[in-house]
Queue: 2 jobs
Job 1
Amino acid sequence: MAVRANPNLLEELKHYGADDVTKCYHCGNCSATCPLSKEPFIFPRKSMRYLQMGLGDKLKGNLEPWLCYYCGECSDECPREAEPGETMMSMRRWLTAKYDITGISKLFYESWVAEAGAIMLVALLTGIGFYWFGMTKGGGDFGIYAGPNAFLPAHTEGNFFGLGWNVHTFDWIMGAVLGGLLVTNCLRMWWFTTGSRKDMKVPLGTYIKHAFLLPWHFITQKRYAECDKKKPWIIHLILMLSYLTLLILIMLFLHHMHAPETHWVHIFGYASTIGLLGTAAYALNGRLNKTETHYKHSHESDLIFLFLLLYVGTTGILQHFAYRFLGNEILANFMYIIHMMGVVPMLVLEVPFSKWAHLAYRPYAMYLAAVQADVIAEREGTKVPALAPQKQMTA
Ligand code: SF4
Ligand code: SF4
């Protein structure tokens, strides 16, 4: 089949953060240096080549950008300062836009004004919507924060047009919408990288055999730990686990989080809020002051993501303190709405369409890479274990 080259690909990738790709003269230093580059996936040089040659379809079917955790070692070693680490990051953004069926991701990555504008619009609608919901559900007492008559009841059912909804219903609706979008996009990712490839016929048993890798890589981010520098992995792990803990607390224990008496879930809430705020502040400082190689270049979406995290973490803890330590239920309800004005845009815009999407795509790529490695080893009659360490000088 003829391979089509897209002469505008390099220009297109610039919107996603790629910069000095033409400087690369293919010495292969980066692939030899990369601690995560292992047979049968040797990167990042090959991906740099695809980009230089305008091979958009090859790039779209490429899992390798997701196997990179941006430790920055390749960029440090590149004799041409072609920034292969940042280029891999820009490819992940570009791929996120390609997987997204709605086109929203492309819009956000190509225009930070559109992303910031959409966040502000959704925040405004959320504020109005939650206030309206509080006022119409049957009591609308802004002076009551928790319990059956609360302005925004977390547990006891409200009387929302006779439907018996409470504020928790919104979490589950958002969860369902998010899940639907991510599953659709993951299916597209599978099709581009595996399903549409004639040389990649995967037996069902191989998919099942590696299924455990999905939760394993999601929770541990273990592959990141294989980088020579351990600090970025620890920071990333704390951020991810804090976020996951807060998500579980909100989805399953919201009424205990809002309870006036002390409950064991509060300990997890405090710990994960500290983890979230601490790591987000660390990353923001790193990006603003360019403290490490992987913080040297910042796309606008990186900064929007961190500002949103800090906003959500700070307003969440202020809402909690207003109720539990100040006993000011009016202030707590006010802060609740302010907090949700960050939570909703973060969940409905950032998770499926922007930086947070890598939470799903990266472990999924690890899984697909293990599946593909099995198929390649079987086809070539080799015994190469999936993603076993085998560095090469060139690739
Ligand atoms: S180190 Fe990698 S990115 Fe840099 S010139 Fe060599 S092949 Fe290109
Ligand atoms: S940034 Fe690190 S993990 Fe990514 S390609 Fe470069 S050396 Fe490998």
Note: Residues 24-30, 45, 48, 78, 80, 82, 84 surround iron/sulfur cluster (ligand 1) (CB under 6 Å).
Job 2
Amino acid sequence: MAEPARRVWITGASSGLGAALARACIAAGDQVWLSARPGPRLDDTVAALGPRAHALPVDVTERAALTAALATLERAAGLPDLVILNAGTYQPLGLANLDPAAIRALFALNVFAVSDALAWLGPRLAARGHGQVALVGSVAADIGLPYAGPYSASKAALVRLAQALRPEFERAGLVLTLVEPGFVRTPLTAKNDFPMPFMLDADDAARRILRGLARQRFRVRVPWTMSLLMRLLANLPEACSLPLRRRMLRS
Ligand SMILES: NC(=O)c1ccc[n+]([C@@H]2O[C@H](COP(=O)([O-])OP(=O)(O)OC[C@H]3O[C@@H](n4cnc5c(N)ncnc54)[C@H](OP(=O)(O)O)[C@@H]3O)[C@@H](O)[C@H]2O)c1
């Protein structure tokens, strides 16, 4: 008898990397539930993906709405086999515009929406005894670069969260993966006006990420070139790193 299709839930799936991950999962035969805020962008993305794609509209920063959406998904299809917590955002925030509301909004999406989803899913997946959860971080977590401090801090929070939870996930028979992309061509990076080395197309990034997820690796960093560059930068002594970071200041 044929294996039942894998059930995948992806947040931030109306555009960019999330939509590309949904496309790649559908191509692999999965049933995919796509979440983003309600609206035509999500509807159009789901419609373009065909009958194995399902919309699960929700603002993931609203905890009550998030848990209600997850309960709806569980009732309709059961708990997912693969969860990709991908919704996230970036905006340049430096000394001149260190806006407290913007920083809170960034953390609400990049960190607290992730921990809220984990809080609801974790015990339920553990009780079931199988499943994979991927948190989409960024190589930007490796080091704080000018204007990316709040973003880098939010993604670094995911690294620590994932490291801390990994042993418990494993003991419960679950797989926890930290996905850390370099630059990916998406609506988010289209706004950037600085050089973005080793940039990947979203569909290429999604295929590489799904390969890493299938291998059940803890950290999936793509592409390896950008991963290495950021690791090298992060491991320089401060006396070498600071002059490089100063050169990234805008005039
Ligand atoms: N692009 C890169 O170079 C890059 C590099 C490293 C890491 N990442 C990470 O990859 C992830 C995806 O980034 P991307 O470049 O694909 O960004 P994107 O094109 O801006 O997509 C972000 C997605 O998140 C959704 N979203 C935003 N706010 C939401 C909310 N409150 N509730 C539910 N969904 C929400 C958006 O949908 P709606 O606006 O329709 O709600 C959209 O589908 C992020 O976590 C980002 O930090 C990206």
Note: The chain has eight helices and nine strands.
